[in-house]
Amino acid sequence: MSLIKDLKWRYATKKYNAEKKVSEAEISKLKEAIQLAASSWGLQLYKILDVRNPETREQLKPHSWGQSQITDASHLLVFCSHNSVSDQDTDDYIALKAKIQGVKVEDLKGYGDFMKMKINEKSPNEVKSWTDKQTYIALGNALIACAEMKIDATPMEGFDAAKYDEILGLKEKGLFASVVLAVGYRHAEDDAAEQPKVRKSIETLFETYE
Ligand SMILES: Cc1cc2nc3c(=O)[nH]c(=O)nc-3n(C[C@H](O)[C@H](O)[C@H](O)COP(=O)(O)O)c2cc1C
């Protein structure tokens, strides 16, 4: 299985070669892999900011524990989740599903109403935790896609989400910053590349119920 080989190859890159850029074609592929992530009900309650402005990245760095990946990686993706979910979000999804799958919106009404009922049962905090979880599935897709394309990547939670919200104007967009993904190419002197993977054994991680 080549995927296992790819997953062994990847590591959370600590030091990037700031001179080496990921091509636009590969970034497009990466975006497609993220687009194809599974999500609860298919709602895709996230937006991924592709932060290209070098000054903005400099601004974000001190609020990211000073981590060099923020400015040195080729690209910086900020995975943001919806702060809340409205009936309109469900209606938009139903309209899209109807259009793509060639069915009538009216025929999906019962399904949409059930979705709304289940979503509206959640408290505001539960909604945020739920949207956040969906976003991490998208992050997982991105990590696997990068590994397959032999692009280095760093998933990052080491940042001040409130500051990101402020700098990137997320609140006005109904979003909050969940997790960051730096992508690019490792620096030849990144010692982390040589370190063996630290993972619990399969026996520890899994339990079989018979
Ligand atoms: C959600 C998440 C947040 C992380 N945050 C950071 C981070 O802020 N900085 C960093 O260098 N690595 C970060 N990591 C990388 C992990 O430390 C790393 O994935 C883990 O130690 C396993 O090592 P490996 O990915 O190199 O195999 C994060 C990983 C995940 C999944």
Brief digest:
This protein is an alpha+beta fold. It is built from 9 helices and 4 strands; from the N terminus they run H-H-E-H-H-E-H-H-H-E-H-E-H.
Rg for CA atoms = 19 Å
Strand content: 5-15%
Hetero groups: flavin mononucleotide
Count of helical regions: 9
Kindly report how far apart the N and C termini lie.
27 Å
- Based on secondary structure, the structural category is alpha+beta
Write out the strand line-up for the largest beta sheet, numbering strands in chain order: 1-2-4-3
Please, what is the CATH homologous superfamily?
A: NADH Oxidase
Q: In the residues, how many domains can be counted? A: 1
Q: Please describe the biggest sheet, giving its number of strands, its sense, and whether it closes into a barrel.
A: 4 strands, antiparallel
* Strand element count: 4
Shape: globular
The run of helices and strands is: HHEHHEHHHEHEH
**pLDDT < 50 stretches:** none
- Helical fraction: 40-55%
Using the coordinates shown, work out and report the CATH topology: NADH Oxidase
Write the CATH architecture name. 3-Layer(aba) Sandwich
| Mean pLDDT value | 98
What is the name of the CATH class? Alpha Beta
